[in-house]
Amino acid sequence: MGNPALEIFGRHTSYNVQKVLWIVDELNLIYSHTEVGGRFGGNDTVEFLRMNPAGKVPVLRDRGKVVLESNTIVRYLAQTYGIKSWLPSGAFERSQCDQWMDWSIDRFEQAFVGVFWGHYRTPAADRDNDAIAKSVVDCENCLELLSQQLANKAFLLGTNPTVADIATGVFLHRLISMDLTIDVPDNINRWYQRFSLRPGYKKWVMSDFSELKARIGY
Ligand SMILES: N[C@@H](CCC(=O)N[C@@H](CS)C(=O)NCC(=O)O)C(=O)O
Fold first, then answer.
1. By CB atoms within 10 Å of each CB, which of 43, 123, 135, 214 scores lowest?
2. Ligand 1 closest atom vs CA 218
3. C-beta atoms surrounding 64 within 10 Å
């Protein structure tokens, strides 16, 4: 299964781009990948802005059609090329996926950004340690909520991973491997171990992100 006309634009060090690279590997799709944004630049060209006027990555182009927003791209790929288990089609089952994906943007990403940008990407002398400490607590609260959901399940919605695991699981590697102590519940550590066995997670999400340390320029 594959589609050589699938084009992904975005630097692999972006966690939002990683969601897309992870799922295309899970779905065994054939695609081209162009590094854009960050130190690679290229997200301010006329051609790129025609695809995404906001100048942000990731961008997916599928046979000429542009899809934006990482969670939307993940759902689009699962629906277009995936097996049903990645994105259930029943209204209620689908709502469970959407719920975690919306929560992930609304709560988990906000908490993560407070830690990742506030601590990791900011030079030590410029950090707001009180704000970072608050974000650490926010992250721990998010992990606790996810942990409760994972009490009797391998993945968020059951035995198999879904798009909801991609949208939320992408933050784990950096939270766990950053030079900052965060309490990680056992259920979350086991979830992370399961992800780390998946080639797409290992290749893209567990990749080196040290070029972003103390770098707030992009
Ligand atoms: N909500 C958007 C966020 C897109 C976004 O802010 N992307 C960042 C990278 S995570 C970006 O393009 N930054 C500019 C750059 O990397 O140069 C999504 O989920 O796709």
1. 123
2. 17
3. 7
Phi, psi of 79 (to 5 degrees): -70, -40
Amino acid occupying residue 93: E
Please indicate whether residue 69, judged by its CB atom, sits closer than 6 Å to ligand 1. Answer: yes
pLDDT band at 3 (very low <50, low <70, confident <90, very high): very low
15 and 52 housed in the same domain: yes
Q: Is the domain of 106 the same as that of 200? A: yes
Q: Are residues 107 and 166 in the same domain?
A: yes
Predicted confidence at residue 4, as pLDDT, reads 55
* 19 close to ligand 1 (CB < 6 Angstrom): no
Distance CA 207, CA 7 (A): 21
Residues 104 and 138 placed together within one structural domain of the fold? yes
Rounded Cα–Cα distance for residues 165 and 209 (Å): 21
pLDDT-based confidence at 83, cuts 50/70/90? confident
CB of residue 14 inside a 6 A radius of ligand 1: yes
Q: Give tens-digit pLDDT for 132-189.
A: 999 999 999 999 999 999 999 999 999 999 999 999 999 999 999 999 999 999 999 9
Domain shared by 162 and 115, yes or no = yes
Task: Please give the number of the atom of ligand 1 that sits closest to the Cα of 11.
Answer: 16
Range of the domain at 109: 86-212
Q: What's the CATH number where 132 sits?
A: 1.20.1050.10
**pTM (two decimals):** 0.96
Q: Does residue 43 line the site of ligand 1, with CB under 6 A?
A: yes
